[in-house]
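I am still getting used to backbone structure tokens and would like to learn alongside you. To get us started, please write out a protein record for me. Once you have written the record down, we can walk along the chain together.
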Amino acid sequence: MCENPIDIIEHVITIDPGHRGIDTMWQYGSLQKAADSILKQDRKIPSYVLTGFCCMFGRCETDGPLGSAILSSTLRDLRFNTFLLTDSFAEPVVKAAASEVFAENALFNENKEKLVVSVDDPTKIVNISFIISIERPGRSRKTNDYRTMSARDITQCTAPLDLLFPQIGESQKSYLTIGVGDGGNEVGTGNIADEVCKHVNHGDEICTSICADILIMTGVSNWGALALAAALVIVANDKTAAEKFINQCINQPNILKKMIDAGSFDGCTGKPELSIDNMKYEDDHLIVTNKIIAAVKMAFQMS
């Protein structure tokens, strides 16, 4: 049994509840590597957490913004100049998540800059320290458009923000890039495109060409976001940030409610309910959340 808290967290999130065929694609050690790499970056230069997957009705699903808002908050607690990044299609849901997480400072930083940045043109994002993508569509390697897990075309409601990341065959960006995905069509999973083609249903059509310096594969992308936030507070040894992270995790049902009120829905069922990827929050997601919290408490010897 592993005793390193980050190894425990990585073990918790590397399960395949949707039976997508990703259980051969875990990137063991990537959680530690991502946290170590982020904490070496300049904290004054803007950094971004990119999210928003509009897979039905032109609206954003529940997987992505929930964990992204908490991760963004944790990064700011660690004194990074971090912003949530999305496009105009997912903006209402991402803002709703952020409004619950950042309620204290009303979605503005100390310089009165908006903490949620919504753009449809990736060239408007410049001077980047690092960027993390959580459940964001990456263009198909085969057709160069955006696809759901069932290979449905969603290009009409997806801005090309994946171009902030390198494509297969391109050199790395001048800034750190990290991708979190759970299926093979998300930004960053171009790192394992051949495996996605081989093991995932519709893999040849959905696998993306968009890569990342570090890829975190997980059963649900929100879990990956929470896991990365947890790893960051542990590596930074910041107990205050850890306590805030735990409180944000406990508050997830309220964040989800805000998102649903803004038009979000479960990306698998299409229903506006407190569930993610066809799993009720109070069941699977609460279990995973509690295990992540327990690992953080163990790291800081909290009761």
Remarks:
- The longest strand covers residues 176-181.
